[in-house]
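Annotated sample (chain length 145).
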Amino acid sequence: MRVLLQRVSRARVTVAGRETGRIDRGYVVLAGFTHGDGAEQLQWMADKIVGLRLFSDADEKMNLALTDVGGALLVVSQFTLYGDAAKGRRPSFIQAAHPDAAIVLYDAFVLALRERGVPVETGEFGAMMDVELVNDGPVTLWLER
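Output written by the structure step:
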């Protein structure tokens, strides 16, 4: 599982002009899944994201977690995180999980995040989405498990 996480002051995702998710302070989580991903990867990643201390405290140190600041998550499926552009000019997506498997993983991941008590908004799996965000920092992390 691969995640690109961005700390934002606000973000929203739309599909064909219809808003499917919106958050204020929190993280945009672009999530990609590969063959062999399962409950272990999903649970680890959910714990990691919710527990990361990426928000500033009174001393301007990144010392506060999402729950400390009342933040939310906007989770968007992103199979292109498994794009391999090492050869040629067109990326290969062979390492990305097949959509039938990936949607099950995506839904389970969103549920795992919600079970940790944070508000979670989403995009729409498999759809062409417009993601708008105001990056806070910028603070961007790549996580993999």
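Annotation: The chain is about 20% helix and 40% strand.
Annotation: The first helix runs from residue 39 to 51.
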